[in-house]
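Incident review: delayed structure delivery

Summary: a single-chain prediction request sat in the queue longer than the usual turnaround. Root cause was a stuck worker, restarted by the on-call engineer. No data loss occurred. The affected request and its eventual output are reproduced below so the record is complete for anyone auditing the incident later.

Affected input:
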Amino acid sequence: MKVNEARAKVNLPRDEDPASDEIAPQQGGPSDATAHPAEPPAKGMVRTDDPAPDDADAMVIRPILEAHRTRQAARLEKWPVAERPAAFFAHFDRWTRELAADLTPIVGVEEAGHLAVQINIRTLDALETAA
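Output delivered after worker restart:
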């Protein structure tokens, strides 16, 4: 949206700056999938081999999975190791929805849902093993 278009929507006067009639660059962006791809998992979070639909998508999926685990670890580190499986399971649907949303543009809706469930089941298993 152009600045002057936005100003008109809220009944503000037109800005005479020529840049106000240009589309502004996108702010923000996709999830923080590549910010810390090599960050180690939190204590009690164990990395597992992740299923990938094929080798072509694997390189794109890997940073998304790392970012997803980083979000999970940040949330779960608030609980003692023994309580993390229950805390994770209480939010299993949320974790699955978030991961599926991140994967959908790459592998499609059906495959993203399937992968998200598979990966979160493996994470829950790893948490239970660590507890």
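Verification: The two ends are 50 Å apart (CA to CA).
Action items: add queue-age alerting; document worker restart procedure.
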